[in-house]
Design a protein that fits this description.
0% strand, 4 helices, mainly alpha, single chain, 79 residues
Length: 79
């Protein structure tokens, strides 16, 4: 018999109030358990801010295409 089956069999013997306590405890344990390994940050590829923002580049009209080439914007930088 698996652990899950054993827990279910024992759970059925408890009064409803105790079953609710068990449910509350299981939910508490779930909240304290880290996400599955497949959902962890280690498995996700690293993406730069540039890559994430590329679809927005040039979406505003009338502004400079790139602030790093805007001499007025860069005036006094580093002083």
């Amino acid at each position: 018999m698996s652990i899950e089956q054993t827990v279910l069999e024992k759970l059925k013997t408890l009064p409803i109030e105790k079953q609710q306590e068990v449910l509350d405890f299981v939910e508490f344990l779930q909240s304290k358990t880290p996400a599955k390994e497949s959902d962890s940050q280690e498995d996700k590829p690293v993406v730069s801010a540039l890559t994430l923002a590329q679809k927005w580049v040039g979406c505003l009209e009338g502004g400079p295409p790139d602030l790093s080439t805007n001499k007025k914007y860069m005036e006094g930088y580093g002083k």
